[in-house]
Amino acid sequence: MTPHRPAREVAIVAFAQSDHRRRTDDLSEVEMVMPVLHDVLRQTGLKASDIGFTCSGSSDYLAGRAFSFTMALDGVGAWPPISESHVETDGAWALYEAWVKLLTGEADTALVYSYGKSSPGSVRDVLTRQLDPYYLAPLWPDSVALAALQAQALVDAGHTDEPALAAIAERSRSDAAANPHAQLPGARPQGEYVVQPLRTGDCPPIGDGAAAVILAAGDLARELCERPAWIRGMDHRIEAHSLGVRDLTDSPSTRLAAERAGAFERPVDTAELHAPFTSQEVVLAKALGLDESVRVNPSGGALGANPVMATGLIRLGEAAARIHRGASDRALAHATSGPCLQQNLVAVLEGDPRA
Amino acid sequence: MTAAAPPPEALRAPLVVEFPFTRSLGPVQSAFLTGLRERTVLGARTEAGEVLVPPVEYDPVTAAELRELVEVGVTGTVTTWAWNPEPRRGQPLATPFAWVLVRLDGADTALLHALDAPGPEAVRTGLRVRIRWAAERSGAITDIACFEPYEYENDDPATGPQPHDGEFGNPVTGIVAPARLDYTYSPGRAQTRYLHALAGRRTVGERCPSCAKVYVPPRGACPTCGVATTDQVEVGPRGTVTTYCIVNIKAKNLDIEVPYVYAHIALDGAGLALHGRIGGIPYDEVRMGLRVEPVWSEDGRYPDHYRPTGEPDADYDTYKELL
């Protein structure tokens, strides 16, 4: 499949995230989101009223608050009525919607944000509610259990083993030590099995957090950002929904999204992969053909902080921020949603050549 | 007016979200779940000849409608597994077990369920297993209680799928999937301050530092300016009915005689109206501009309703911006 080239230059021009914490009992969702919204506006000098389109991603099930996203909208300054949309999934898909909106020419700037408060509930159980309601949900197979089935399939196929998974955990948390927002900075013991073969160290931390980015088109992007992270391509694809139909050791949807996004045209120097479990990084690295020349998850990835519904958007933001500060010229960013890498989004970001 | 002080402590309360989803079944799902009730496992054959178990209504590759049913075995082979040392609420077994994907004999895809085994050392990919049926079956995936290891010398996994018409007496046409999620609700800074004040029979709003509007109840942000509200402002206790409706249908679990009046009430000093019930006056005498005051609930934690103060009605111009 040939890459789909965007019809308009659009870039990520600002990125902000909260400090991700195990609990944020003192903050409502809007109180958690507002600082990151103000941060990206400050970075660009834009006012809320300058934003052409606003799109957010979140899930009411996480904190058990119906229509929580409408409350969070208060933090945007949504009155008088703004042009706005919401996706009930990771904010990476909100970014995709905003990107399409800019490609149509209907807007020149977009504010994208997402947030997740996992602390009020039990996220392992909450995520069972997204599963097939006939054959899966009545069994309450939690998110770690499903990832563990995938991990065992990888071990059986000879694609990884426990020491290799532990090395991914150690590298991620060591890198997270340099990320001031991370919830788990620094390597730590792998711990006991949560669901064998996955140990505590193979699983993401549970916590709360928020993130925001601003997109801008063309010359406006150049005005707002010294080195915009141009979106060269972006695509998302989904696997068959029945787990028993899929080959859990591969991710054809990731590979196809990457092809469509143009990821294989030239090597990338950085990849921010949304792999909540160590074993899922193995699947993604294989599907994307990443070799050792690619710096994977310099931010620490989802193993360093996993504010569910924001983690994918943060991958796009971290990749863009690396381009902004000149640490990357061409980066791949990936986001996932659903059990065992059910849906996958891939974006290719580039900075302008440096003089 | 006082600057917003940090609340004395974060409030928290248990919150249970519980809902029974009632879902109808397609013809394939209906036959499969009814079959489980009758201890029969059905699969659906695709155009390419693959047998899907559990079956779906449409081919995951071609999207073609699937209608050809076959019966597969109640024994099968583990294709991957994961040992669950601490079962969680709702899961198939209460003692440690293995999650398994099982390809039943005659099927080409795998079914997720639990395997009852003494420990992880007794489980491996390739293990032969069979269905343990639930004693009481209703036409649900839980009619399979779990799988159990099945090692017999005369085991013949090569049994092919047998044609089946999918017909059973009294077919299951829907499922009720109960769901319960438990949360600990915490309302955040602004609402915590509001609730603490209410417990002292004071209604305290918060002012936007940018446009000066006073929000009651406060939610922490000004939706016009997109900034945090900063200053606490005591409003009321009296207020004005800005608009209202007459409720004629009794709400479930609400012990209030109908008809009654539910109103928007602009408390004195507030920048927008809040909701409240009006009592102490016949329902058909409530009007815009009526002056009211709160009547506190028995435990004094919140206004149970509002009643007329006896003051002259407010002039329309004083509340027309708050409608």
From TrEMBL, chain A:
An example Gene Ontology molecular-function term: acyltransferase activity, transferring groups other than amino-acyl groups
InterPro entries: Thiolase-like
PANTHER family: ACETYL-COA C-ACETYLTRANSFERASE (PTHR42870), NON-SPECIFIC LIPID-TRANSFER PROTEIN-LIKE 2 (PTHR42870:SF1)
NCBIfam families the record matches: PRK07937.1 (NF005924)
Protein name: Lipid-transfer protein
Organism: Streptomyces gardneri
UniProtKB/TrEMBL annotation, chain B:
Keyword DNA-binding applies: yes
Keywords on record: DNA-binding
Claim: Endoplasmic reticulum is one of the keywords in the record: no
Record-linked Gene3D superfamilies: 6.10.30.10
Domain ChsH2 rubredoxin-like zinc ribbon: 201-228
Domain ChsH2 C-terminal OB-fold: 70-133, 233-296
Cited Pfam families: OB_ChsH2_C, zf-ChsH2
InterPro entries: ChsH2_C, ChsH2_Znr, NA-bd_OB-fold, Thioester_dehydratase-like
Gene Ontology molecular function, alphabetical: DNA binding
PANTHER family: BLR3430 PROTEIN
UniProt name for this protein: DNA-binding protein
